[in-house]
Amino acid sequence: MSEQRMGDQSFMKGVFHGDLAEDLIFPFPQVAKEEGENLSMILDSVSRFLDEKVDSAAIDREHSIPESVIEEAKALGLFGLQIPMDHGGIGLSTTAYSRIMQQVGGHDASLAVTLGAHQSIGLKALLLFGTDEQKERFFPTLATGEKVAAFALTEPSAGSDAAGIKTHAKLSEDGTYWVLNGSKIWITNGAIADVFTVFARTSDFEEGTKPRLTAFIVERGEGLTTGSNEAKLGIRGSSTTEVFFDDVRVPAENVIGEVGRGFKVAMGVLNSGRLGLAAGCVGVNKTLIKMALDRVGERRAFGKYLGEFGLIKDKIAGMLARTYALESMTYLTTGLLDAGVPDYSLESAICKVYGSETAWWVVNETLQIAAGTGYMEEYPYERILRDSRINLIFEGTNEILRCFIALSGLAGPGRELSEVSRAMREPIKGFGLLVDYAVKFARNRIAPGRLTRAHPVLSRETVLIEEYTAHLAGHVGNLLRKHGRDIALMQFAQRRVADVAIDLFALSACVSRTTATIESRGEEAAREEIDYTRIFAVEARRRLECNVVGFEANDDEVRKGAAVRSYELGSYPFDIMG
Amino acid sequence: MKILVALKRVADPDNANKVKIPADGSTIDTAGLEFKPNPFDEYALETALRLTEDGTKPKVRDGEVIVVTFGPADTESTLRAALATGADRAIRVDANDDQLDGLLVAKGLKTLVAEEKPDIVLMGKQAVDGDTNQVGQALAELLDWPMATFAATIEEQEDGLVVGREVDGGVLELSIKYPAVVTVDLRIVSPSSVYSTKTDRSFKYNEGVRFSPLPAIMQARRKPLDTKSLADLVDDTGLKINYLRFEAPPARLAGVKVADAAELVDKLKNEAKVL
Description:
The complex is a heterodimer of chains A (about 575) and B (about 280).
Chain A: H1 2-8, H2 11-16, H3 22-25, H4 33-53, H5 56-62, H6 67-76, H7 94-105, H8 109-122, H9 124-129, H10 132-144, E1 149-152, E2 168-171, E3 177-188, E4 195-201, E5 213-219, E6 224-226, E7 240-251, E8 255-256, H11 262-298, E9 300-301, E10 304-305, H12 310-338, H13 345-370, H14 372-375, H15 381-389, H16 398-410, H17 417-425, H18 427-443, H19 459-483, H20 491-525, H21 527-552, H22 556-569
Parallel strand pairs in A: 1-4
Antiparallel strand pairs in A: 2-3, 3-7, 4-5, 5-8, 6-7, 9-10
Chain B: E1 2-6, E2 9-11, E3 35-37, H1 39-51, E4 64-71, H2 76-85, E5 89-94, H3 102-116, E6 120-124, H4 135-143, E7 147-156, E8 160-167, E9 170-177, E10 180-184, E11 194-195, H5 214-219, E12 225-229, H6 230-233, H7 261-270
Helix pairs in contact in B: 3-4
């Protein structure tokens, strides 16, 4: 069993079972010298393009990115960042790609989402699962942006629950093409895309049974139509439309991966796509911190600068520390991926949840610091707030992702994601096998995990990680033994498990990165990073304590009862008028 | 046309406050500084690119642009950035900043010019760190070539250049024959400052220097980058200019509040002695 654990190589899956596979997270990944040099030149070009050409206020006001800006982004090479060089792309690693998305995300969310829909998810299935022939056929034009890609999974009856997909594909009698019928909603880049990664069922629809999904590359053409752009709260410059398939003929050689294994393709794409989103959140946070710092150094009240007030300092310290944690976990995960670690699904889901929630908190606090000014349309605060809201929703809602984090962690390493997902749909039947395995696994733990490679200056934070890793593993074992398969239904417990996991990953990433700085540049040069890590650790400890206590003592049942009773009534039950 | 562009990297001028000087004033502590290309030298590279192309087809280079810098190994990133922007090849002359002065750099360039035989040597009017403003002039003297400094506009002719220099009260136009040394001022990167014979006069460039497309950045690594030692180029590598001592500018004193205009006038007259 321990061999399987080592071979599986997910730091966080180890944590669920009390292991701290520190060799995975130490040393903190560094960008290799040559790529670093290229990357700094690229960032220089990208920043100048963004500063000189991309007017976010105008994009928001006009609900569209000017054609000239898109054309210039294409000419710059921004549409082919991860496509290999021999297919006409730039051939960047995930770390470099994410760092660029950070830059774009920190400047304009609509452009970041457009670029992300194209390459974080739109063409990612081809990149991860495509054949050489498919890559040769599609990459050269996708890399230059001559053609734009989109990812089409969501349907009216299938959002987070991909099993509800009704769009179906039927193989022609001679087996040379598929006929696609159905529709998709909320497809980013819908109006501008030429190439769609489409998920369709290739088994008949039957309520309650697991569908067989297949991924297809579908080119815009006869039978494929897109609706008009949806009006949205934020990211208004990005295109979001419905996509309709009316007897669309798709050549048999356009199947991505295997027929019937589309779910695996979708999960693979989203696992890696979430990192681009998290990196965009790092960029938003850095922009907001700059805005907040400018504000508190300019604005005066009661004869002082805002920055002199304690409650402002508290907010700024929180922004700095949480952004450091987010940046550390995001680039730790991209580093793992670039190093060839095969399973980063839990880590990337954590980055997405923590990134989107941290950015939402930072934008809210920055707007609060600007107060009345923050609320005015004339200033960028409210736009950034609107733009940031989507991150909590798309690429898997944070609620679903918390359940995913908990269940895939509970299920132990080496489990197919589709099994976990099926467990959410068919808890008892689907989760049974997983639990039998996991219970055995939980009982086999002997010694608690240790982080021996963390720098001694961070010993308090290291102990916190070790202590709560043991707590998590203990409670996971208890939950599994006590509730068995029913754990699949217990979302309150899942949330606690997920929240503990998120804090442990964030803290581990901070400790790894700060250790690297201390070791390379000395304790004095690492002062700020040590402080950020400590600030984050104190915040994390409060949450960890609360969550761990909650495993045993909570009011989950009372809350469930109140909710269920209100469903019958359909409204809030009281009024002071009696 | 063949153009040699001399580039220097300087401590990031936007972070000048990070420059530290040890108590004995013997040197400038460059640890922890970020380096950028000297902006005027970036303008010189942009000028060289504009002179070797049709403005509507910036990917096609008509002629050759060679960039050279004098510095330690990590200055190669400055050269690679120049290659990514469009230069054809690069030369690094290995030397540390404290082994160099303006005359030595000019002498080194003279030897390179003899090897490369460019039509024009272009560089910024000065580097924004030392601000010595010597190398271009010294090089022209050593080569006995015509020189135009502080160029604000350049128009290519059949056998030379017409260079516009902004002077008090107007623009002075010089006509110089190849080969020549030209140093450029900031206005040279305006939209209609530089025209090669291939670029139509109605064409307008984007303001400023061009940014490198990402594929060019990745391909820059394949372009040649040669290294030479200073001793290969110059017989006597001794410094002619010695820096005796560095001092940080005195910290600004806190201001005082004056009660009324009369007090202000009094202070300006009697303390500041400016009235």
